[in-house]
Write a structure and sequence with these properties.
heterodimer, A: mainly alpha, B: alpha+beta, six-stranded mixed sheet, about 30% strand
Chain lengths: ~290, ~375
Amino acid sequence: MNSPANPASATKVDRSRLIRAAVPALGLFWLVVTTLPFIFVVMTSLKSQQETFSGSVWSLPEKLNFENYLAVLNGGFWTYLRNSVFVLVTSIILILVISSMAAYAFARLRFRLNKPLFGLIVAGMIVPIHITLIPIYLLIRNVGLYDTPFALIGPYVATALPVSIFILTEFMRQIPKELEEAAKLDGCGAFGIFWKVFLPLSGPGLSTVAIYNSIGLWNEFIFAYVLTSNPANRTLPLAIWDFQGQYASNIPAILSVVTLTSLPLIVAYAFGQERIVKGMMAGALKG
Amino acid sequence: MTSISLRNIQKTFGKDTQVIKDVNLEIAAGEFCVFLGPSGCGKSTLLRMIAGIEDVTAGDLAIGGVRMNEVPAAQRQVAMVFQSYALYPHMSVYENMAFGLRQARVDKNEIDQRVREAAQILQLEPLLERMPRALSGGQRQRVAIGRAIVRSPNVFLFDEPLSNLDAALRVHMRAEISRLHKKFNHASAIYVTHDQTEAMAMADKIVLLRAGPDMAKYGSVAQIGTPMDLYHRPSNRFVAAFLGSPRMNFIEARVVAGDAGGLTLQIGAGETVSVPVDASALEIGVTVTLGLRPEHMHPVAPDSAECRMTRAVRQVERFGEYSYVYLTGDSAEALIAKVPGDCYARCGEAMSFGFDPAHCHVFDAEGLALPRLSDND
């Protein structure tokens, strides 16, 4: 026999239908919010400077104008790119080495000040980098690194370490203790356990840290602006400076720089997306 | 051949959480010893102390006559099989098995030979290049055992290695581990389990551990002995209750008469039984507990001379070959009798049972077993 219609269950069905309809609508809305600025940047970069002033903001370019891109590529773009790649690769390697070793120590080694020290490092995440600008500027100048690509590596590594250590410590805490004990019985010391067991198993976590920091450091502007002055030593985000005059800005050229600067990140994200999500989700479910 | 000796072993976590108290134990070379006990009794902790991955708070631990308290795990010549297998997920089966030998800088050719020998014994040869995630539970277990075997240890340690397997595989692997131990009989083995069937089936010696207030009062070890010793001659009520499924029946009884030559107990209205135990320490009229295993109760006619107990049937569970008959006891807890499958038993009806007094156990108010006058087991 069928049970009589239940008003409570009818409301439940209505609500779940509403949710099912709302989720894609909200997703679409968010896609528009995040993609529109990028579409604007690409579209405007293909306009002439005259067109940006005369036409509507959202109008399509009258004809595809690649002159801005040629101007950027024939300028100092390749020097900036080389500097950016050098600073980024060196910084990321140092961040991964230091943060993974620190994370292993915090996650697995028992020592006296483990918890307070970890708390102190994590608290480093809340320090706004802008208040450290003047001391870092003075420090870098005093050690003779001012206006070199090396000037950026120290501050980049230091500011990235708290969040990197935090992510990797949580990741390594999820690695079963039995693996560590098995390695101990197999004759590994603390470093052997880290190097041969924890590091290979932390691949997704390391990828997360690398990609997360790469995005931040690739776009980093303020340290690069304060600690370098010669165009030969500057990084990509400062390339826009070439097209910023005292009285006027070449907006399409600046946006060409922005487009070209974003491309490597977009490509990296397209390939690394799965790893980022895996890294973020690691340990959330029993594997 | 390596013996293991534990003298007054204690383990305390933090300042005052004692998990192991006063463990004294000798495990002979080549012996298969099982640590058995309920959850939280410290059996895994004791094993981990022997392995060297947990510190000994106090006492002496010796392997092969050498004190090992401060010796690192890798130098104790022990190999451990973990409950979760603990295979390195990023290494192939071969690499997992070879890892310990590589750490010990054993010659490459010898590593290869030892890994392949172990793989052959455990029928792992076709799986050597596979990653652990591509193996079934049973295969992973065999790899974990293989990883222990290749190191040719003096002591094998097993920490509940079968608890993640299904029932059929568990029975198969149980026999496999026993077979392997006989094959490598130079090595001693310590096996931790909470499953009494595994313990009874595999052990040369069982160490039954207890937890909670009894551990704090009497120490961690409830009894040490062969499986048959513990089953037929439990030294206290905890051991008697822990071993056997269904567990031993406990019946409140009053001492009617007793001396060094035997004990007469009243177990119900007009029901008395004479048990061959030394009752010289008991006074007439005190209450004791009579222990009787379900398989030692057999149905008899109510008016027969063998009849010792008549109770109402509360429930019957039939398993074909045998049935469990639940009887109304003196307390809320039912008495259980194991009877032949074709035995007539019906809920609500009274049923009479006989038993051999020589199979009875008597426990005093402290729960300690009274000494038996003869052992017929």
